[in-house]
Amino acid sequence: MLRGFYTAASGMIAQQRRQEALSNNMANANTPGYKSDQGVMRAFPELLMQRMEAKSMPTGRGLHVPFNQELGGLNTGTYLQETVPDFAQGDIRETGIGTDMALVNGDLPDGEGSLYFTVAHEDGEARYTRNGNFTVDGQGYLVTQAGNYVLDEEGSRIDVGGMDFDVASDGTISIAGNDTPLGIAYINDANSLVKEGDTWFRLEEGEAVNARQTPDVNFSVQQNHLERSNVDAGKTMTEMMNTYRNFEMNQRVLKAYDQSMDKAVNEIGRLT
Questions:
Q1: Where is the Flagellar basal-body/hook protein C-terminal domain (predicted)?
Q2: Which of 2, 14, 128, 130 is least enclosed, having the fewest CB within 10 Å?
C-alpha cells in the first residue's frame, strides 16, 4: 500500500512540472522568436511481483517445498525526464519597424540544424536567439531590447548610427554606403543549446559556425518583420486541461490510499 502512495505522488509531481512548462509556453505565446518546450515523460523501472508459497509433499515427515509464482509487473511511478525546445520556425509577421528583423530558414543540410542571430552577453560570450526585435541605443549601436549588442559575423558590435538603415535579404546592413553582414550562426545540433531566458540560447557543447560559409545552408533576413512564437495556443490550452485532469486523478488515487490506510490503522488494528 505504501508503494501506491509513492506511485500516485510521483504522478502528481510529474503532472505539476509539465503544467509549469505548458504555462510558460502560454505566457510566451506572443514573445517574438520564442521556442516552446515539450515535456518528455518517463516511467520508473517496473517491479516484478512474485508470490512466495510452499507445497506440502505426502511424506512421513510432511515436507514443504517452497516455490514462487509470478503475479506480473508493477509500475513504480513516472517522472518528467526533461523539457526539450521545439525549434520549428514560427510565423513571420510584418511590423513596419525598420529595426525589426526576421530570420527565415531556407535549405539546411539534411533538414537538420538551426540558424540564429548572434548577440553579446555580459560574460563576454556569444548567445543565440531567433528574436529579431532589435533597437538602437544612444551611441548608435544595434542592440536587443535588453540592451545587449547585436554582433556582426566578425563578433563585433554593429554601429548603425541611427534608425535609418537598410537590411538586404542576405543579412547585410547598408549604412552610408558601407556594408556590415549580420552575424548569422548555424548550429548543426540544436539539442546542444540550453535556454537562458529572454529567448536566448547558450551553446553547451560543439561550436557555432558562420552560416554564410557553410555549404548547403540558405537563409534570408526580412527587415520590418518579426518571427512570432511557435506556441500553438489552442493545443497548449488542451494539453493544460488534460494535465490538470491527470493531476486530479492521481490526487483521487492518493486520497483513496489514505482512506484505506486510515481504516487499517484506526479500525482493523483496534479490533484485533
A1: 222-266
A2: 2
- Give yes or no: residues 19 and 74 share one domain: yes
Based on the fold, state whether residues 222 and 113 are members of the same structural domain.
Answer: yes
The range of the structural domain enclosing residue 196 comes to: 92-227
CA distance 138 to 124: 21
Q: How many residues does the chain have?
A: 272
Positive/negative CA dihedral, 190, 195, 200, 202? negative
User: Same structural domain for residues 207 and 117?
Assistant: yes
| Structural domain total, the chain | 2
pLDDT of residue 120: 94
* Angle separating helix axes 233-263 and 2-27, nearest 10 degrees: 160
**Of 212, 227, 242, the domain-final residue:** 227
- Between the alpha carbon of residue 159 and those of residues 129, 141, 149, 256, the distances in Å are 20, 4, 10, 66
